[in-house]
Automatic annotation (TrEMBL):
Annotated signal sequence range: 1-21
Protein name from the UniProt record: FecR family protein
PANTHER family (alphabetical): FECR PROTEIN DOMAIN-CONTAINING PROTEIN, LIPL45-RELATED LIPOPROTEIN-RELATED
Species this chain originates from: Cohnella silvisoli
Keyword line: Signal
Positions of the FecR protein domain: 69-171
Amino acid sequence: MNNRKISTLLVSLLVALPLLGAFPNQVSATSSRVAVVKEVKGTAKVQKAGGSKEFTAFAKMTINEGDILATGAGSSVILKFRNGQSDDDLMTVAPGSTLSFDKLSDSKGTRTKISLRKGSVWVEVKSITSTDDKYELETPTAAMGVRGTSFFAAYDPSINAAQLLTTDGAVGVDVWPRPGSDPVDGYLYPAQWGVYAGGDGENIGKMSTVNLDIFSGAADPVILRSILRQAQQIISKNISFVTTMDSRKEQSSAEFPGLPEQSELRDQYVYNVKHLLDLIARAAIDSGKLSEKQIIEIENEISAETGNVFSFDKTVSIQLTDTELKEQGEMLKLLVDLQKNKQTDSTTSGYGNKELVRKLLEQRNLQKQMNESAREQRFKKVEDEYIKQLADNDKTRFLQDKRNLNQ
């Protein structure tokens, strides 16, 4: 998928159908499909379909097909998509976002299609029970078709690039239109991150393990809080995913294309998936998006809700392979180049450009240091194992030779 020239991306988010099997043969919901404002903070405006007048959003306000929602600076909205099911879909809309609700219906299955024109959202889809049901989120460079999963998506129109992080489930990435092509080119599994950039007929899609610095930089505090509040459910789903993946190791390359097959590399991936919410909590604190006090408040809310003491392990660090470090370096370079191009374009505003480029460059340098450190650690491990096998005389001679070489 990396470095491919693409005209448009179609991203299909699934809870990995190979994991769960086919959907049960259930009748689609027959009640009206609507989006309802569950919570609004600050000021958000809704432009009703076919009109030009904007209305201020309020709790319990209904959003229908053709409407446009825009959140102001420092404002956010939580939407509930209702279709008569006990498990409603949720969407957290960050400040400075604009969405159009292109399709909301229950005819021949529940259909939801939303265009993210700018900004970011976190989506939790639970209610789809039939293959006739569809939930799609589109940006100008990527479209996401959802089947029971949760994910973060952001789109920056000034650089024409989208970012995507799967928090649970799987993301099938498809390039279209390509007659005769396979239905899915690759997947984004939990803890994996994608960047999809377009322009001048040379659109690019790249993916790797999540870069927590870039993700926490792109995610608004309201998004981070929404993700962390669902920690128990996400952790449970991801443990189930890992258990299923491990039980099917022999078929893993066919059922889970794109995931590491070597045991050592797979162990690193499993570690990152199991600790994804811990890693996000730590990144939220390190980036200053959430304070330690706010994280403790979230932990207390989860504990009160579940009846069990819950806490994030904020001592963990993400584990990356050499390949992942290289992939992240390529993705960082892409984002840096996009920002540099934006800076040289006189038609765009310079808001935040210099600071973001500086941070991206710092991250690239840090990534190089991490790469070198990882190689040194592996060499040290091999060296230590070798020394353990030597007799005392040989060990002394080896260490003396090493000192002489270093002089």
